Amino acid sequence: AAVYQVPISGVLYTIEHVLKWEMSLAAWIPATVTVILATIVASPLVPDDGLYAMDLYSYKWPTWQMFVWALLIGPISGCSAVAFRRLIKFVETIKPLARLP
User: What residues of the chain score a pLDDT lower than 50?
Assistant: First the structure.
């Protein structure tokens, strides 16, 4: 939370994963204080303009090669997913029911 400058998400993550959804005030106050302190300590070190540089692709139209690739890879991926799911269902029917001691 401190690195990404999202203290509210840090509090919710702490409550959810670390404290296993304990909703008491005794759990919320330390989680909130800890996340706020971590954000304050990390703020001079973490840049505000973003951690990852990425080109803007929203202003460019995809090339025709990208459309052809999408038309080819889409059905192949879909058929592969269906075949994989059927394989998993088949393997589940032939697996042993119990383990030996």
Answer: none
